[in-house]
């Protein structure tokens, strides 16, 4: 009887102790936060009032914010008001302006291409056009930032430009009405051969699912029976877009990804939900060190469900989810709120706590110990201390270090000679001058991309002219390094010409001929069918 009476009092005392402990912990936590804010305010006030020189308090505050975030993970960041607009445009999928891609070549604003669907394209502005005046003011020597300031603006407003075009003696005057310009995240899509479709996705913005779905539908109409999805150097973006894109290829109600955070409201699970005609198509996904975040969600789900093959190099390893908090001065805080996990339970995030700074985290190589070749059973990582997980068919995969491909194919590095050609923009400027002289004959001889791809040759005399041009731009010639990269150099020159007429499809469809990761992927569709159990 005594024990039965004592027990409720003991239980009550225990519960009361827990409640009081939680309450006091929160109270002290709030007090600590208030004390810290007061301390920061005091330091800022003393500095502003007594420092030997005038101080920019806003700059000090932003430096303090960045310093604070440096104590967290590498992906929690502060976005200044100046950066915020550009970041928002990138993920929103549009901006307002005249719609050109441009480069500054020899101090001259040069049109690389008019963006499809934009006002410049509608007016007939062409690649290679030189914009010499904006609103009747010379723009020789203009900077990239000034170009954006002068040519971007509210939809419906006008801007006057003067353009010099090869073959036309007088400047051409244009009045361009600014409009919303689409920013595409699907760079290109085309048929590699009669059965193989190719899509390159550069980021996961608000419009990526719609763009990709439309591209796949177009390829399907053109006879696509198998797909290469290129996510190389895709840094990621919106989680919901990664889920919807994964759902295009993963059937039933299978789990695609889930998130867990310190606060339960950030714990979420995402499943396939919509049927798709692409659920049974053989698929190979290309990734590399620059493939991160949403790219890893898609490739991780495909790998965990043995839905297709992953080819290339180990991905970046970003398994953290950020939420954006907008601040009153049009800046923003992008704060990590949870971690994401693949269907098998893998955390993709690689270690960042044992790095001296963000630079080391971003620059470290994560592929040095991997051997090229077949990695279906992931023996390349068998000595790893990383946690072990299993795919649907029981294959071993590892967490904590990105997505390691099923076939490891390292990207070929170019020689110092070719690096200097790229660094000094020699490919673009040479082809610009070449087209100034040959623009009329290219389209006459090669009316479409197919005929250009099959019949246009980069001759030895063409390459000699290119080498001489590079020398005139202070790129020292190395015969050994040139011969080592000769195929790539020739392909890039040809691709640069093709881009002038057929945009990204011309560029990609020629460059992939020298792409070792792509060429390997094209030999693996039988294996992709086997692993996905497709007929």
Question: Any descriptors?
Answer:
single chain, 535 residues, alpha+beta, Pdz3 Domain, 2-enoyl-CoA Hydratase, Chain A, domain 1, seven-stranded mixed β-sheet, six-stranded antiparallel β-sheet, 16 helices, 22 strands, 42% helix, 20% strand, globular, disordered N terminus
Q: What gross morphology would you assign?
A: globular
Give the count of helical stretches: 16
The tally of strands reads 22
What share of the residues lie within helices? 40-55%
Question: What is the CATH domain class of the largest domain?
Answer: Alpha Beta
Q: What is the percentage of strand-forming residues? A: 15-25%
Q: How confident overall, as mean pLDDT?
A: 88
Instruction: Write down the Rg.
Output: 28 Å
State the secondary-structure class: alpha+beta
| Total domains | 4
Uncertain residue ranges: 1-20
The first-to-last residue Cα distance is 73 Å
Strand order of the largest sheet: 10-11-12-15-16-22-19
